[in-house]
Design brief:
With about 160 residues, this protein is mainly alpha-helical. It has one domain. About 70% of the residues lie in helices and about 0% in strands. Strands 1-2 form a two-stranded antiparallel ribbon. A hairpin with a 2-residue loop joins strand 1 and strand 2. The protein starts with a helix and ends with a helix.
Length: about 160
Amino acid sequence: MKTIENSFLINQILKQRFVRFGLFIFAAAWFGGIISPCFDSNCINSLYPFQKQLFSTVCHQSAAKSFICNDLPFLVCARCTGIYSGALFSAFMLMIYNKLFILKTKYLMILSAPMLLDVILVNIGVYNYNKSLSAFTGFLFGSAVFLYILSAIENLLFTKQK
């Protein structure tokens, strides 16, 4: 009986690692697309219009609010770059730190508050848009929200149906 329980547990851990590795690969590929203007400009110039259209579904892509590399704006704004880099960071860390965790809504609220505050203060004119600050607050949000997305996926895949 113990060996059946142990093999089930090992199977669950392997599945969890596979899911986490898959999400890391997806996040890395997505982030690679975002920063693709920094790569070989000859190849990128031909793909750039297609990539820009693809990423337009997730961001307003305002060039004034985007980081620039090789005279081309990133495919998403600075805030979205921060969000996706935060998600990539969390995905990487969760491959290394492979423990289960219990999420509380207060953590998401705490890490979302700086981004919300930044958006509000810029929009009411307290200060001008700052790419670095937007990227940082996006990073905090992206790092946190990835944990909740991962938790939802793992619960969906690994929770026994009643």
